[in-house]
Amino acid sequence: MKKTACFVITLIVSACAFISASNKNDEKTGILILAHGGKANWNQAVYDAAEPLRSYYPVEIAFGMANPRTMQAGIDNLEKQGVSKIVVVPLFISSYSFIIRQNEYLLGIRKELADPPFVMDHGDGMEQASDNKHEAMESNDHQKMPSMATAQHEGGMATIKPLNINAQIILTKPLDDSQYVADILYKHIAELSLNPDVETVIIVGHGPEGESDNRNWILTIERLADRIQELQLKKGPGFRMIFSVTVRDDASKEIYDQAKENLRSLVRQAGVEGDVIVVPLLLSQGGIEKGIITRLEGLDYKWNGKTLLPELGISGFLENTIRDALRTR
Question: N or C: which end of the chain has fewer CB within 10 A?
Answer without folding.
Answer: N
